[in-house]
Design brief:
This protein has 173 residues and is mainly alpha-helical. The chain has one domain. The chain is built from 7 helices and 2 strands. The chain has a two-stranded antiparallel ribbon with strand order 1-2. α5 crosses α7 and α6 runs antiparallel to α7. The longest helix has 20 residues. The N terminus is likely disordered.
Length: 173
């Protein structure tokens, strides 16, 4: 599945060539490298877009730390979760807890991390995909968020009250 984009096919925002081995460039992108990294038109498959987003998230110190924590240190899980998130056929009903957590970070303005991730992610998409395609993807992810928020919590039935185990006769009775 390919997404039409007006952007990055083979370069990260900092101008570094994307590869699985160098997925986390350490320096912040310069304005000139952002412009260089956006060719006039190209196509990017969902896995390539996901890889691009993962590289950008790994580059940001706070987002990297939070995502490392919520994924149990498994960036392959983060990449799989982001593939589900950017897949236009994804439904809010069948999302894993990790996917829901990442969508919450991307869409909600909750806490410090949400207020960092949401604008960072949106700006990243606009720079990478162009405004119209980014807007469609942001709308899709927002719909996933709304659907997942509307789902009732799947908590098990309440446990029965624990009966008193001591006798009612009291001490020494």
């Amino acid at each position: 599945m390919l997404l039409e984009i007006e952007a990055v096919a083979e370069k990260a925002l900092d101008g570094a060539t994307l590869s699985r081995e160098t997925a986390s460039p350490q320096s912040a992108p310069s304005e000139s490298s952002r412009k260089r990294a956006t060719p006039s038109s190209s196509r990017m498959a969902v896995p390539e877009l996901t890889f691009f987003i993962v590289a950008a998230f790994r580059r940001h110190p706070h987002i990297n730390n939070v995502l490392t924590h919520i994924s149990g240190g498994s960036w392959s899980r983060i990449e799989e979760a982001l593939q589900v998130i950017v897949d236009p056929d994804a439904s809010g009903r069948d999302l894993s807890p990790l996917v829901r957590n990442i969508i919450d970070l991307i869409c909600a303005d909750r806490g410090v991390t949400g207020r960092i991730v949401k604008p960072y992610y949106r700006e990243l998409l606009v720079r990478a995909l162009g405004e119209s395609v980014a807007r469609r993807l942001i709308t899709h992810v927002t719909c996933l968020f709304v659907e997942s928020e509307a789902m009732p919590c799947q908590i098990g039935p309440p446990r029965p009250a624990i009966a008193a185990t001591s006798s009612s006769t009291g001490v020494g009775g």
